[in-house]
Amino acid sequence: MSTDTRNQNEAAEQVKQQVRNTIQELRALVRADLSFDEFCQTLLNKAVPLTGAHGAIIWRAGGEGGQLIMAAAHGPRVEEIQPQHPAHQSLLLDAASKQHSLVVPSEALGLFNGVVNAAGDRPGEMLLLVTPVFDRKKQCWGVLELLQRPDIMPAAQQGYLKFLGELAGLFPRWHEQNDLRQMSSAESNWVNRLNFAKEIHRSTELEPTAYAVANEARRLLHADRACIAIWDGSQCQIRAISSQDRFDNRANVVKRLRAVATAAVRSSTPLWLTGDTTALPPKVAALVNSYLDEAHSRTLAVLPMEEYQAASTSISVKRTRPQRKRKLGALVLEYFDREVPREAHEDELQLVLDEGSVALTNALETNEILFLPLLRWLGGIKRFLFADHLSKTLTALGALALLTAFMCLWPTPMRLKIDGVLQPEIRRNLFTELDGVVEKVNVDHKSNVRQGELLLELNNEPLRLKALELSGQIKTNREQIDGLRRQQLQQKNMKEDERLSIAGRIEQLEIQNKSLEEQLARVERQLESLRIYSPIDGTVLTWEARRRLEQLPVQANQPVLSVAKLDGPWQVELMIPQNRVGYVTRALQENPAKQLETEFVLATNPNVRIKGRLLRIAERAEADPNGSLAFRAIVEVDKAGLTNPQPGAGVSARVNCGQQPVGFVWFFQIVDFVRTHLWF
Domain spans of the chain? Predict the structure, then answer.
């Protein structure tokens, strides 16, 4: 096989693949939501460049005298075709009536005889390939025509006809998809109408009904906002605005909307405005323009609604339409960014007005019934108890009586749940007496210490300097005293007044020295208080004491270390809330042993229950970590039940406060609330 032949085969295969791809794209285009004109134009836009033709035209029936008219066209020479040419029309009608494809040269039809194009030249001849186009019911509705070069081979002509047949086969599919879309749209429309009717009749209360009508009308009519105004006899009141649970009736836009609705209802004149208010009465036009200045709506519709009065006095919705009677209010529709004619939603609008009037009428009638909520509640109780459930009611009353007797008479232990912490019984918290800086820490976490062992050394530089200053003053005074005394001994012939003066000076210095020594002793005691010793034998509990405390500035009365005797007895400290301390105190006083059985679990090991005995309760309340007042209580713990106890571990305890009726044990908090807040 030569190279030229191979290249030709490859080129032909590429063209075939391109045709296949285009057909696939057009088949996918059938399923797109396109109008018929858009589909036809897109199909021609893709087909003409692929075939290299001068153009393509879609002809459809509907012209005068049974002629075909041009529906869509694309290509550089389609304008040269004369739509009303008799021979050309005959060709098209022949293909449509006989329902088969035709290939005819334009010169055989005399299509371009005497025709001159825009450049003043005679147009060249073309080969016309025509194939009929059918709808989904296999009825021919038009013709697809391809304007091809006149010099193509017969085999190529058959290929182009086959390609046209593929294109023509897409039209029945488009019609089928279009019918399905229309059916789906119609079904969706009916579903929306049914949903509208169902939602607005769901309630007979005025407020929910008004909001349902507004929201569902906005959705059904594709409005941007819908409002319901109710006529109160003299003017309209805005009762519902779609998509707004709350609105301010004093707002300017609401006031002006109320004025527009009032004017429309008073005159019983529907308003459907798309910007032009010249046809309205001057006063109404002024109100409308004032509102539009606030709302900026492109389309405003104010549609009065008349109240329906059923023949029966029943408040339920009737299937037959009752006779219209009096003014009900108005439905207000707004479209912010487009002008919508009333004809676009005429059917849905009539449904909204009719069904909305019935729903609002029933809601208003229901709203006028005196004590309606109470009557409904009593009616519900009556139906439930004495209609079809009499045997069940008697059974329930018997069961309730037995349950009440059980709850009032059957005793059970009252175990109150109280939170607390586990602590060693022997423990001390060490505080600083003076301000200072921690200079040396001799212990660390879990260090075992002995009573009197030095734990911390603090430094107070001002206090230390004051001690040095006092020592220096004392030393200076002593040197002065020694000098004056030597002066007395050395001068034997000293005058009496000089001797008395020296003696007075010595006495003054001794008194001053005594005061300075007392101050120095006090300062030394303060310096000694900067050295903190262990008050007991035990273990340091402060976490990472050396790292956290070294060089730490501290203030007076600041806790720095905690020491506890871990191998000694342990106890649980409970914080009893005020509303439970009375039960615990009363049970403790009534118990002959003056102790209450307690069971608790540790937060660190909740799988083990530990026994204990509550021994005493504090006389005064103190604030717990949450800021609430509580009473501290001590529970003695059997150390044998503890496994690796940890100081400060959380505890959930249950204190046995004696026997009480089971109903009181279950609901004592409710009883206390009633006694405190209702009966007091």
Answer: 22-112+123-179, 201-372, 429-557, 569-678
